[in-house]
Amino acid sequence: MTRIDIPILTGARCTLRGYRPDDAPSLAAHADNRAIWRNLLDIFPSPYTLADAERWVNHCQTNDDGQAHFAIEVEGACAGNFTLRPPDSGNQDFLELGYWLGEAHWGRGVMTEAVALGMDFAFAQLDCRRIEARAYGWAVGSQRVLEKCGFTLEGRLRNRMFKDGELTDQCVYGILRCEWLARKYQLHATFAAAS
Ligand SMILES: CC(C)(COP(=O)(O)OP(=O)(O)OC[C@H]1O[C@@H](n2cnc3c(N)ncnc32)[C@H](O)[C@@H]1OP(=O)(O)O)[C@@H](O)C(=O)NCCC(=O)NCCS
Q1: What is the CATH number of domain 9-194?
Q2: This model's pTM is above 0.90
């Protein structure tokens, strides 16, 4: 798989950057939260220990899985994760994204900005033509983030996922490069107006 070098992407509310070993304690403190786990695949641990965080940071630093894992830094500390990954063949022209943010920072536009920074990078630097994201049916916050960033709901797969003892739909979102180019200036203007 082609290695993706991780740049530093700076916004007004957060910075996306590569992981550092000293991120692990802050990462673990934010990640150990059932409200985050409930919206993610079961591969995300719960409880989330310092050892889990150290393993994750080490994995991201070796960066040999063809995926781009960014630490989301807020107020000087790692407070979440943003990942870009090629779903199938390893080609970077079609990417899927995934993310979570520590609850202490919810509701301040951080993730909308983080997704916008990541999409700018993917479409401008990786020659990407399409980005896809999946959200559980009950993950309305995540769906709203994607809609604000210009994604289209392309399908709702009913009762597709089993999580936390319940069945839920899986919402499949997509955005094309031309749609992002049309949306991004509008979105960046709202960021500037709010800061
Ligand atoms: C979903 C999540 C990423 C949102 O992050 P955030 O930084 O709080 O999101 P923003 O502040 O950028 O909010 C964007 C929009 O979503 C809305 N929103 C956020 N959380 C919401 C919720 N729980 N219910 C309803 N709307 C919500 C905001 O009001 C805002 O919309 P508005 O501008 O129209 O008011 C964060 O809550 C999280 O990490 N949750 C757990 C993990 C997860 O769901 N990951 C995504 C898996 S696909």
Answers
A1: 3.40.630.30
A2: yes
Residue with the smallest CA separation from ligand 1 atom 41 is 36
The CA 82 to ligand 1 mean position distance, Å, reads 14
Rg (CA), the chain: 16
Pocket perturbation via mutation, ligand 1, pick of 30, 34, 42, 106 by most ligand atoms within 8 A of CB: 106
How many CB atoms neighbour CB 117 within 10 A?
Answer: 22
Q: Distance from the CA of 44 to the center of ligand 1, in angstroms?
A: 18
Q: What is the DSSP letter of 18?
A: -
Q: Which residues, 6 or more positions from 10, have their beta carbon under 8 angstroms from its beta carbon?
A: 117
Residue 89's pLDDT band (cuts 50, 70, 90):
low
- Neighbouring CB atoms inside 10 A of 115's CB total 25
What is d(CA 30, CA 142) in angstroms, rounded to the nearest whole number?
Answer: 17
User: Per-residue pLDDT tens for 150-175?
Assistant: 999 999 999 999 999 999 999 999 99
**10: helix, strand or coil:** strand
Is the distance from CB of 166 to CB of 189 less than 8 angstroms?
no
The C-alpha torsion from 54 through 83 and 16 to 102, rounded to 10°, is -60
Rounded to a whole number of angstroms, the distance between the first and last alpha carbons of the chain is: 39
